[in-house]
Amino acid sequence: MFQECFHHSPRSNWAYAYDMDTIHLRVQTKRDDVDEVTVIAGDKYDWASINEELPMLKIASDRFYDYWEAAVKPKYKRFSYIFRMRQGEETVYLSEDGTCGEQPFPVNGYYEFPYIHEIDLFTAPEWAKSAVFYQIMPDRFADGDPAIDPEGKAEWGGQPTADAHFGGDLQGILDHLDHLTDLGVTAVYLTPIFQSPSNHKYDTVDYMKIDEHFGDKAVLKQLVHACHERGIRVVLDAVFNHTSEQFPPFQDVLKHGEQSKYADWFHVRSFPAEVKDGIATYDTFGFFGQMPKLNTANPKTKKYLLDVAEYWIRETDIDGWRLDVANEVDHHFWRAFRQVVKAAKPDAYIVGEVWNDSRPWLQGDQFDSVMNYPFADRVLGFFTGEGVDGRTFAEGMNTLLMRYPQGTNEVIFNLLSSHDTPRVLTRAGGNKLKLKLSVVFLLTYIGTPCIFYGDEIGLQGGNDPDCRACMIWDEERQDRELYDFYKLLIGLRKSHPALRSGRFRFLKADEGDARIVYERLGEGEHFTVWMNPTGERTVLEHAMETNDWHDALTGDHAPVKDGMQRVELDPFGYRILARKL
Questions:
Q1: In terms of C-beta density within 10 A (0-12 exposed, 13-18 middle, 19 or more buried), how is residue 140 classed?
Q2: Using an 8 Å Cβ cutoff, are 527 and 549 in contact?
Q3: How far apart, in whole angstroms, are the C-alpha atoms of residue 531 and residue 554?
Q4: I need a surface site. Which of 124, 173, 489, 560 has the fewest CB within 10 A?
Q5: CATH class (in words) of the domain with range 128-240+318-496
Q6: Which CATH number fits domain 499-580: 3.40.630.70, 3.50.80.10, 2.60.40.1180, 2.60.40.3080?
Q7: What angle do CA 520, 321, 137 make, to 5 degrees?
Q8: What are the residue numbers of the active site?
Q9: What is the pLDDT of residues 306-342, one digit of tens each?
């Protein structure tokens, strides 16, 4: 065995408390190098009486490694443990002290999980595990109150530009809640709604005021209440990394320089605060001088922003915050933010905008989730691209799954498109069959799925601002067949817990073959999903032990003959099979 490939760490995603009774352990070995892994666990104070051997399941593989997992339920919320690896006749033990051929005497040198403390658990809201989100840009969704339209607004449905305002507002969302209810979504995420000069509102002027072109606090309260009556949660967007240059404290800095009482609210490198040759003398979002970066380590700035977060929860009963440019704000601020938000509403959902590996923010003391852009890149690269085989796709997805503990994976914010990316149908080259495969994967995968407004009726658009087109409300211009497809898949997910929080594992993902099979396994039910991302009709086979499978969408029996299930798939086709346990 390649012992140099063994890896385990008694922390983070390798050893973590899933709940107050269960510890999940993971260990890494070289791919296809180890036949069997067993965890030997016992109480460090009474090993002789309290110990057990638990087989570990190979839950994932990537390009170089296999990953094994087991769930341990210690009698006294603590335990010590060691791993036994076997390949053929060779056996090796892995402990904190390294590897050896004989089991060391317990428990010196063993790994240890000292105690399950409830306060240290990663606890995301239960409702987020079952949610199907719908992202809305208010200016582009619906114009419900023409009396508050901005001056010079563009004609609804026109070409989106960086500066165009189209007059969408909160009343427009209220007017179309039947659309959301019929589609089946259970949560909405609104891009910023606070006072701002732009159409996107990511440059805030007044955090305590709804933008006058969107409505006011009374309309927001009405919207949240109406959503809650329909079982829909509401998450708002918070921009705490930066503000608008029109933000009054920054205007004071421009006027009074170093003498301003707000001078320390920002990162001013040299006074006066100004833009010289295109570069500001103060830190900004990107290189946009009109978006000065806030100093969230300043106690007064910090208190102001935390008060904002608490205020809107208590005043309007929103259900959480999505946090813009979250990775550029200090961790101390986010820890305080979580404490304030959870005190105001314990089941509030906190989602950070982080585009890369997000483990530092997902330790249970900051965010509940992050926007999972790496998921979108891999899924769309596979289903809408060319030349990626099943093995490469599975390896990429498994790498993502192994980044985080299961509890995090259950609420990770999965998306295919957003206001910052091309729309999914555009990424698919207009091919609806490729789009559907991507959506099937999204809605049968572990995590919290999100749909960008209009994707369900066939909106297209490239990068910002093209992806921010106005919603189409004329049903004759909507793709109603695509809408019904989204509705069907959302309904299937909502009806089956195994599709939301059950175990995910690839069953077939081979080199040189784009066809894949994966499973979702939960209490009382088992699903397999068969996909053919090729332009050829095919028959896909996989060994199955039982003959009790049926098509989850049609109810038709899916026979197993001689221990083998054979599924016919159209070009770019899929089938979802299910059975009861």
A1: buried
A2: no
A3: 17
A4: 560
A5: alpha beta
A6: 2.60.40.1180
A7: 90
A8: 324, 353
A9: 999 999 999 999 999 999 999 999 999 999 999 999 9
